Amino acid sequence: MDISLIIPVLNEEESLAELAEWIERVMNEHNFTYEIIFINDGSTDDSLAVIKSLSQKNSSIKCISFRRNHGKSAALNEGFQQSEGEVVITMDSDLQDSPEEIPELYKMIKNEGFDIVSGWKKKRYDPKSKTVPTKLYNLVTRKITGIKLHDFNCGLKAYHTDVIKSIHVYGEMHRYIPVLAKWQGFSHIGEKVVSHQARKYGKTKFGWERFIRGPLDLLSIIFVSKFSKRPMHFFGSLGILSFLAGFFITVWLIGEKFYARFHDSYIGRDIIDKPLFFIALLMLLIGVILFLAGFIGELISRITISRTSSLVKEKINLD
Question: Is the pTM of this model over 0.70?
Fold first, then answer.
């Protein structure tokens, strides 16, 4: 199969039929073999009923329906697991991403050897309250990760199948799939300017909370990618540094006390009367706690938790 299209859906009943027809037309024009996997992310409207109706008319349309809303990352991850195409393309279901971009994205992955091609909505039809923070967020992410993309959050992306089978997406990590892929060794990451359509139906799912969750998830990715398999290197190192600092402060205080005792002209305060003593005690305690955290982390990292399909309520046209 040439292409798997992964499309998360949350209350987009009005746009689904038009989107499916548009995709089908593009695929037939270019003779692609394909599948469309809609991920119904707990929609409360008639989105699931529309998808079921579409799947009866076109066997290439498949659906995974969640019991409740779990977010875009969970939807994409489930779609990635089920996809069978050589090239996997993700797009939004609100008609703001154009299916006309699919052939060129496919070509860049298949013929030009890219691992990932990310869309760049250079001209956007979004309010300033969304575009300005997004530009700042993209700038910070570029600086931190070293990946030269202008639009990390663009939903229109193409992946070689090896990429999406090698990563696990959770939380709000869908914004950072190129980062996850890079740290798995997929470094040939490209970018393509794509058209952005004005929203035709419904309302945006954009919320300010993503500017809080996004940076936190970026920090999580950086930490997990470097220390998930060796947490003792992180927590243990900090723990040892803290413990040694507390230990040497304690030795210095004891030495100072002995100096005071053997020099009658020097009036020394009791150790427990000095604030430095409590700082040393705190650092010793923190050192022990961090070391134990690293030890527990090592135990947890050796436990393999298999992912199950407990999120899924229903599958259509999927074995």
Answer: yes
